Write a sequence for this structure.
DNA sequence: TATGCGATTGCCT
DNA sequence: GGCAATCGCATAG
């Protein structure tokens, strides 16, 4: 069980404290090593909630400590933890981590990964390894299949520009990617893909 | 109603 | 290291 008030601060404030946390879903436990913070309406051009509430991002506007999932690139699911009080709509994207329990099950789900470090390195991989699907959107991380243990003390961490965010939301103006330095399960930094063929 | 593209990954050269 | 896959959602008309 975690202290829900931890997620009532903004995503940027809470994100570093989520590093080192243990998230368990159906017997698979992840030690979180990399996250990105996204703020709310009108505050953050890179955030799904920047332009206001829509059917897709509705759960971001709900109670903190719940799961926000979304589908992208026609094939991938990514998972976020809702932050800030109801109506504020900020969130923390889970970008990478180490599987510390239930490795066999995670391997079975991620048959393409070549090493255990790749099981949950990257947001879409992480969701697959934990068995998180779109149907889990809105789930309370303290109930049902989910449980979350926050670290007793904040881990040492680095911060930098967010990965894969296009337009104004990317770059050094929003250094809201946080990771545990030197950890092999942190995804490699990649700037937003330049526009593809015309 | 129509159109463009994304908080990515994995396979190909 | 480079690019194709794939579709729901947001934006424009």
């Amino acid at each position: 069980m975690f202290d829900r008030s931890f997620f009532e601060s903004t995503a940027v404030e809470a994100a570093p404290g989520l590093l080192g946390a243990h998230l368990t879903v159906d017997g698979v436990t992840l030690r979180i090593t990399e996250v990105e913070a996204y703020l709310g309406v009108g505050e953050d051009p890179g955030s799904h909630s920047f332009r206001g509430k829509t059917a897709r991002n509705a759960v971001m506007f709900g109670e903190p400590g719940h799961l926000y999932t979304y589908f992208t690139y026609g094939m991938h699911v990514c998972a976020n933890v809702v932050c800030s009080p109801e109506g504020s709509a900020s969130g923390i994207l889970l970008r990478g981590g180490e599987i510390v329990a239930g490795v066999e099950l995670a391997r079975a789900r991620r048959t393409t990964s070549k090493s255990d470090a790749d099981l949950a390195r990257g947001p879409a991989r992480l969701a697959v390894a934990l068995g998180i699907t779109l149907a889990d959107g809105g789930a309370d991380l303290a109930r049902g299949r989910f449980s979350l243990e926050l670290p007793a003390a904040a881990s040492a961490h680095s911060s930098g520009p967010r990965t894969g965010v296009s337009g104004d939301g990317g770059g050094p103006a929003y250094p809201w990617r946080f990771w545990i330095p030197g950890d092999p399960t942190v995804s490699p930094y990649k700037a937003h893909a330049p526009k593809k063929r015309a």
